[in-house]
Every structure is written in structure tokens, then in C-alpha cells.
């Protein structure tokens, strides 16, 4: 069904649901404060990121409003205080059915282990007929989601990460075989308000979950370790943390902005006989490269099990 100023229902509206609502509304009102323009990349050009094209139908794709659904009345009361008039808040099973019935697009933001129960509840499947369902449930496949809905429900998977809360996130989308271009574009528009957005085949989403989804935790361990080194050498803790955080942010922005290979940036800092090469050799002695690579490998293996036993 074509989207025309759709109403969005967020099932399980927690931290990420709130970020999506606020990011989308900020982009509409022009109050965004993102330091760099969000990009959308496509699976046909995995190594390049292109600007969002085709602005002519953006008005039709702008949400008319939001419905936020949570499980309990207490959670609903807190959410109302958080969102104010940005969304209508409903709670309980009846609230889920009402929200899905009144919406054109449904964002499934529940925990993966309860996704089946939420979608299989009485009245939900019928309400999902001819609608777009976007799931951020890690490990829950498009095939599973399709089996819990209806044949006419369009299903898209999204894997956002925690920095979406400050609109510096990374989201990867994957769509079912029958997804139309407008649904894909609408979903890309929504998540690109939270940072960068890339489209990949579903087979890559477990690795995406490990690298992009869990990555902020791994990056923070590295950040903390760098700061610890600064503290050991006499820097105050707050100064060491600030320096380490800005170093990681600056290096990452150089890669994204210039397109330079990380090794090239590393080499540009490394002078013969200097302190940088001494530090790099110490890192190599600690097998940091293989440790980090194996970290992603192990996290990917675990991510592949998250959606099991939910059929």
C-alpha cells in the first residue's frame, strides 16, 4: 500500500524508539544538530556512500504522527512525561492492537525474545495487513517475522546502534524480497535522521550486529584503556578521558570524511624512531589486531543464535 504521510506506531517504545521519534521530528522541523550530513549507502555500492536522492516525494513520506506502545501503565506514564505531545502513548495488549490498527508503519522495538508473542497476540496479525513492519530485533529473521504476520505485510529488518541516541548512529537495513522501493526509501529516511544508514543483504546482519551493534561497547573498552594509560603517566582522569574520546572521534571522522585507509592515517602519524612507532609495536606485541578481529567473530557467532527457537 503506498505511503502517504504515514502514522508510525512504535511497539515497545524504549530508548531506541524514543530516539527514532525525536530524530524524525527534529529532521522535519529543521532543529537537527548533526555534525555531518546523514548518508544512505546501497548494497550495490558497498564501498561508497551516496547522498539521499529523489527529494520530490519527501513530503508524502513525512510521518503524520507517532503512536508509542509499552507494556505497563507505569511505563506509559513515564513515557508521556518524556515525549510530551510528540506521540500518543498506549499501553497493554489492547493498546498494541489499537496502535497497529491506526498506524500505516509499525516499528517493532521489543526485545527479541518477546517479538513472536507480541506479533502473535490476538488482533495484531489482522491489523498488520497491507502495512509496513520494520523490526530492530537482533537475530530475528525476515522469514520469522513474515511467518508471524501476514503475506501482505511488508517486512524490513533494521540494525541501529546506541549512538543513534545522539544522532551519530550506524544503521543497516535489509528488506524482504517483496519490499517496494517506497517502503525502503521511507525506512532509510527515518534511520538516516539518526546518523548513517546502509542497505545490505540479510546474510550480513549477524556480523553487523557484532560490529556496529556491539561495537560501541568494544570502542569504549579501548577508550578506557587509552585513558588509563594517560592516568598512569600523570594526567588527571577527566583530561585523559577527554583526550582519548576526542582522539577516537577525530580518527574515525578522518576515515569517513577523507575516505583514506586507516593504515594511511596511521602511517602519516608515525615518524621513524618516534614515540608512535614505539607504541604501535607494543600494541602488536599484545596481539591487539587479532584480539579485536576475534572479538567481532565471537560476537557474530552469538548474534546468530539470538533469534533461534522463536518460530
From TrEMBL:
GO molecular function: pyrroline-5-carboxylate reductase activity
EC id: 1.5.1.2
GO biological process, one term: L-proline biosynthetic process
Top-level taxon of origin: Eukaryota
Tagged with keyword Oxidoreductase: yes
UniProt binding sites for NADP(+): 11-16
Domain Pyrroline-5-carboxylate reductase catalytic N-terminal stretches: 67-139
Annotated catalysed reactions: L-proline + NADP(+) = (S)-1-pyrroline-5-carboxylate + NADPH + 2 H(+)
Binding site for NADPH: 96
Domain Pyrroline-5-carboxylate reductase dimerisation: 202-304
SUPFAM superfamilies: 6-phosphogluconate dehydrogenase C-terminal domain-like, NAD(P)-binding Rossmann-fold domains
NCBIfam families: proC
Family named by the database record: Belongs to the pyrroline-5-carboxylate reductase family.
Name of the protein in its database record: Pyrroline-5-carboxylate reductase
The organism of origin for this protein: Linnemannia gamsii
